[in-house]
Hints:
Blueprint: H1 7-14, H2 17-22, H3 24-34, H4 38-42, H5 50-55, H6 60-73, H7 79-91, H8 95-103, H9 110-122, H10 126-139, H11 149-155, H12 159-172, H13 178-190, H14 194-203, H15 209-221, H16 225-237, H17 244-256, H18 260-272, H19 279-292, H20 295-303, H21 310-322, H22 326-338, H23 345-357, H24 361-373, H25 381-393, H26 397-406, H27 412-424, H28 428-441, H29 448-461, H30 464-476, H31 483-495, H32 499-506, H33 514-526, H34 530-542, H35 549-562, H36 565-577, H37 585-597, H38 601-609, H39 617-630, H40 633-646, H41 651-663, H42 667-679, E1 688-693, E2 696-701, H43 710-726, H44 742-750, H45 753-764, E3 771-775, H46 781-794, E4 798-801, E5 806-810, E6 813-814
Parallel strand pairs: 3-4
Antiparallel strand pairs: 1-2, 1-3, 4-5, 5-6
Helix pairs in contact: 7-8, 7-9, 8-9, 9-10, 10-11, 11-13, 12-13, 13-14, 13-15, 14-15, 15-16, 15-17, 16-17, 17-18, 17-19, 18-19, 19-20, 19-21, 20-21, 21-22, 21-23, 22-23, 23-24, 23-25, 24-25, 25-26, 25-27, 26-27, 27-28, 27-29, 28-29, 29-30, 29-31, 30-31, 31-32, 31-33, 32-33, 33-34, 33-35, 34-35, ...
The structure holds one DNA strand.
PPR repeats: 109-144, 208-242, 278-308, 309-343, 411-441, 513-547
GO biological process, one term: RNA modification
InterPro entries: DYW_dom, E_motif, PPR_At4g14850-like_plant, PPR_rpt, TPR-like_helical_dom_sf
Amino acid sequence: MFRLAPSCKDRRLCKLLPLLQAHRPLFSAAANSLQISPDCLENESREIDFDDLFQSCTKLHHVKRLHALLVVSGKIKTVFSSTKLVNFYANLGDLSFSRHTFDHISYRNVYTWNSMISVYVRCGRLSEAVDCFYQFTLTSGLRPDFYTFPPVLKACRNLVDGKKIHCSVLKLGFEWDVFVAASLLHMYCRFGLANVARKLFDDMPVRDSGSWNAMISGYCQSGNAVEALDILDEMRLEGVSMDPITVASILPVCARSDNILSGLLIHLYIVKHGLEFNLFVSNNLINMYAKFGMMRHALRVFDQMMERDVVSWNSIIAAYEQSNDPITAHGFFTTMQQAGIQPDLLTLVSLTSIVAQLNDCRNSRSVHGFIMRRGWFMEDVIIGNAVVDMYAKLGIINSACAVFEGLPVKDVISWNTLITGYAQNGLASEAIEVFQMMEECNEINPNQGTYVSILPAYSHVGALRQGIKIHARVIKNCLCFDVFVATCLVDMYGKCGRIDDAMSLFYQVPRSSSVPWNAIISCHGIHGQGDKALNFFRQMLDEGVRPDHITFVSLLTACSHSGLVSEGQRYFHMMQEEFGIKPHLKHYGCMVDLFGRAGHLGMAHNFIQNMPVRPDASIWGALLGACRIHGNMELGAVASDRLFEVDSENVGYYVLMSNIYANVGKWEGVDEVRSLARDRGLKKTPGWSSIEVNNKVDIFYTGNRTHPKYEKIYDELRNLTAKMKSLGYVPDKSFVLQDVEEDEKEHILTSHSERLAIAFGIISSPPKSPIQIFKNLRVCGDCHNWTKFISQITEREIIVRDSNRFHHFKDGICSCGDYW
DNA sequence: TTAGGGTTAG
Length: 820
């Protein structure tokens, strides 16, 4: 039931009373709910203004009631009133009732058809609009007029339709109507035929500002920023001044092409000509300043607006969300609601990202529910993708996958988002599986984003051959010079041990941003080539590239892996003092690792205690790792106590601490930690190593005896061990962390998974060819030493990548100088 | 009575 508070509405509705009286039996319920008092009945005049009546209805069910009354009273017979209803229903959001009304109009004229077409366009149902146009021309026997073409040209989604409709325009002689011509220009620009549009434009006998605007926005929408700015200059040279629509078309071009100067000049023009009070203009200014990162300017425009719509709010929310200020963004969202503005689909797209940035798992469910209740998943794939991304970023990967599976339409971005989600949650094999599914479904063409999402997954598992295949596809698709794809390739070659390939690719890509530099620095860092990493950093500064926070993570990691303690400290200060970068937890973690690895455990602990932010698990984990390397049981216990509180589910920390105890023979400590892990339902991650031979990846678990060639592998191992003992190899049994007899200890060392993989590589590949293996955990000290001997005996280069770094063995030496 | 050219996004 609804109330009609304003008296003018009462008066208008009272005009309906004769009808209500006539059909009281049928419409008494309606009359009651209209709350019309009996007094009104007496004073009713007979004139009824349908237009005013419908205008007074702000709710769909008001219109439906009036419609029913009019039908029954026989007043709705004219085409005019019926067509009006087609528009009213659409404006009130009931497209299906609009179509239903249209279908029941027995006699339709051009106005009826035009209305139905433009209704479809207004509701974004573009293919239906074009279909309706064809139905109109083929079945109605009527001729379209010049009102018909602008909406249908706007609705064309391919050039074939566009050209057909252009033929109709020519046949009927409407090509120089300024409205029709503007639509044609825009259509041709959108489909990349700017030359056709330009020819039409030059031939036009009369042009208005709309014609220029159509060319400018057409260029913008096809991504031709330079042409758009050129034609703007031409327009101004001809003395045509910019109107609000010109400005609203050109500001996004400045934003996208990062043309700050033009943007500022246009803002001056806007102020000078009093255009800043136009809603579209202000909204565009907010968006442009946000893209330039000029948040104070964006905020000033927003604050000075006389009226704001949902786009204004979305723009300011997205501006803060994208400048990584989710708290302010969320504040604007709250204020928007207080101002009574209903959020739309795009507000929720920003909100998903805000929730992810705030790491707010609880609210992620509410946001998801809100979107579901409005049925927005059916409306646009973008919102589904945003929700998948939100869950993936929160680490709730199962929910991300469930939402992905339920999406009514999946585009390439949906797939990319899920692949990235798995890869960033450390689930590289799942990411690869999703990529394979995408390839098998044969409906989606991978794009730049796909390569950027799958390459890190290949890097993670060391799948060099798969990575090379992607490289070939990247070349075929001309994406070699895309800085993000190229950087992923540099990273992939680096992480798969092909540092030379990484280098040669690095020199081919554009290097004006920090992104490729970060990759090449990190690549040398994990290979223990700290000096080279530092050289790249200096070269980067010489070339005028500004480092960012990731550069310093790569640089500090490089220092820590190469024992460059004082250099690391210097860069940590340089980052803050010269580049004004506030250290993140990641940087603090690198510093703890830097001190810890070098054996300065006290300094590392002291550093943690003086940190201005609360240390998380990664910080204590770095300290515990260092305690394991240097056998410091006391400090290890301090670190592990903290870890078992803050990240009690991570089994790796229990294993590290029990290893520290085992290493000094403190077996009761080992038992204590193990039972703690067992009580919490945690299981030790089994160690495994993989090797790619003849395009096939073989995986070996420690002590594995199920491989078809296991007998030959163990024969080879015995053979090799005998040879290396004669060269001076003595097994270091302190790396056996079980409390077993001495004889058993040597056997345990021999069956470590990396040795099985290396032995398999030796018997399966030509003599002296290089071997590369990947291990999921860290390589132990005895295996490290053992592999040095193997590289000498077999004259092979052996590359071992473990969960921490690379070990390059050649001629009995490791390139890391045994510092790891 | 119906029409062009304009903004936000994963």
